[in-house]
Amino acid sequence: MTIDRRDFLQAIAGGVLISSSGVGDSAATAPPAQTASWYDRPMRWAQLAFVENDPGNYDREFWLDYFRRIHADAACLSAGGCVAFYPTRIPLHYRSKWLGNRDTFGDLLKGCRGLGMNVIARTDAHACHQDVCDAHPDWIMVNAKGEKVRHWSDRDFWVTCALGPYNFEFMTSVHREIMTLYGVDGIFTNRWAGSGMCYCIHCRENFRAFSGMDLPRTNDPQNPARREYIVWRQKRLFELWKAWDSAIQSINPNSSFIPNAGGGALSSLDMKTIGARSPILFADRQGRSGLMPPWINGKNAKEYRAALGRKPIAGIFSVGLEDRYRWKDSVQNGNEIRMWVVDGIAHNFRPWFTKFNAKPFDRRWLPVVEELYKWHYENERYLRNEASLARVAIVYSQQTAAYYGGEQARAKVENPSLGFYQAMVEGRIPFEMVHDELLDAEYLAPFRTLVLPNIAALSEKQCGQIRQYVRGGGNLVATWETSLYDEWGVRREDFGLAPLFGTSFAGRTEGPMQNSYLTLEKDPSTGRYHPLLGGLEDATRIINGVNRVIVKPAVAGSYSPLVVVPTYPDLPMEEVFPRPDKTKEAGVFIREFGRGRVMYFPWDVARTFWDVLNVDHGKLLQNAVLWATNEEPPVKVEGVGVVDLSIWTQKNSMTVHLVNLTNPMMMKGPVREIIPAPRQKVRVRVPGRRRIVKVHLLVGKSAVPFRQGNDAIEMEVPSVGLHEVIAIDFAA
Ligand SMILES: [Zn+2]
Fold this sequence. Notes:
Blueprint: H1 5-13, E1 18-19, E2 22-23, E3 45-49, H2 60-69, E4 74-81, H3 104-114, E5 118-124, E6 127-128, H4 130-135, E7 158-159, H5 165-182, E8 186-190, H6 201-211, H7 224-249, E9 256-259, H8 271-277, E10 281-284, H9 296-308, E11 313-318, H10 334-346, E12 350-356, H11 365-378, E13 387-388, E14 392-396, H12 398-405, H13 409-426, E15 431-435, H14 441-444, E16 449-452, H15 460-471, E17 475-479, H16 498-501, E18 503-510, E19 517-520, E20 522-523, E21 528-529, E22 541-543, E23 548-553, E24 562-565, E25 589-593, E26 596-601, H17 605-612, H18 615-629, E27 635-638, E28 643-649, E29 653-660, E30 680-685, E31 692-697, E32 702-703, E33 706-708, E34 712-717, E35 723-730
Parallel strand pairs: 3-4, 3-12, 4-5, 5-8, 8-9, 10-11, 11-12, 14-15, 14-16, 16-17, 17-26
Antiparallel strand pairs: 1-2, 6-7, 13-28, 18-23, 19-22, 19-24, 20-21, 25-26, 27-30, 28-29, 29-35, 30-34, 31-32, 31-35, 33-34
Helix pairs in contact: 5-7, 8-9, 9-10, 10-11, 12-13, 13-17, 13-18, 17-18
The protein binds zinc ion.
């Protein structure tokens, strides 16, 4: 199945084009999605991942009753791969020791179908038993020292090679057998893409045939063999995907292979290809741990939608703790589950709970998921979103992470993106994410402003697309080394976007810098501060970032609202004074091209914001986006608290989601209690001046008085617990 381009564009544009002169309309007139298949039907997923001793020992009726109660309309059930839960006839396909004459998978499948659920089968491809290793030693993963790899957690297992005959032959026959016996709606394979670099005979020979080289022994993306490997591995996995898809579809054309794959800049398989191939996708981000904010789940949804458009996506959440010690049989406290799931729903994930082990030790999660799913079921018509109305898009770039970031991709590529994300959430600015390989005019049409947080590696073609976007009236905010490297991570002589930035690379970078600042400057022609400095007028100067690019402006002496104070000693204290107290170096470059506005920060403002969370940097990022966007936002919510916003249209309604993240545990879970946010004043622009018949709250379950003006309505939400959805019904 390939992506339906029209369908995709509808999804991101929503067919709702808002111009700066007014609000266009087409949400209502846009034709419905072409979905002859089943994929778009299910809204709530249930996954029971069997453990080997579940057959004969778990309570099937309990689960079927639970699925019915929570209105789950699709299930993912464990079938085979490393352990088979059905009577397989494939040699070396290991049956659960508890299976006996049973068909545990088939029995539960039958029960789910009886409830009208769609069912997909789960397989796992990453591990096998000793007999497989004895019969086919070449199916096993080999490490850099040439040793076969035992499973790191369960010593009875061997780790398999993902790119050789184990997957291409053995797992293909497993998938064919499951499809022949059960005709399931899809096969979802876990850990199918390998467990790291494999040096087995097949990988060595196939890589040599592809590249003429030996497998790399370094992770440096500038090493020629490593670079070829990144390309070859993806090619091989996409071939495997195709092989499994054709085996499956030769038996059931309405079914497909669904990889457990995908993600943001740090994911290793190209999302553009995944988005084009996959009719549906599931994001396996089961929960948070460490210093992870709850909005990460919404970010996952945005990254998946950037590549899949309007195709359905589900967010897999675990009911247990997701920590590095992997307490797989644990239960997360209820409010933590709620916060994670609700932020995903607000950004268009369909919920999918996963439970390993069908004999639950701790049942405290059951009523939490039941409550979430029942609410979801009752409000389903307001959750079948057609389009986001956000006008700002943050670009993410897998090639920047792979070839420029390399082993530092998290620090240099993901953290700038997280910083910008946090600033937009704090600023209550609704936004989407965009994949850097999908930057042609049609894909960018819904957006007024494109944000490039250190998108360092961009091809000539991509730079051309961005230039065209600005020429057409689009706006740009970019930071740090954006476009200073080509798509392979090789540094250019100058920024690919130098003509837009109004400045050129002066040949060197500086950092990490200690104790550097930026002075705030008034525009000599007006005697006033630029809107970039809104809220900072009394500051005189603010802290600088930690890394910067030394640049030379295209036009010397032009006004910059920020001027660099170079780094100076921070010890001994007697020596802590600036010298000189400022330079002539601009801290930001601001330009206008016809209707397009560009703001470029030659330093790591978004990365430093994520690192230090200084409020002044957050303000700069918000002001930059507001100035660039230069129009009334689609939704404005005023009040106290940290609120993650999204705005959507459905068939005959629109919704605004407010996810209240105000919480002492926001930046490190797990959340204990929910702290309600007080009254919020809301103004929503209404596409096409549609007449509104009713405004109501889907969580508060009450109607809301509203005032309708020409192209917007205003109302107040008295209080937001964790989540509120303002549903706005259009006149028919
Ligand atoms: Zn291998």
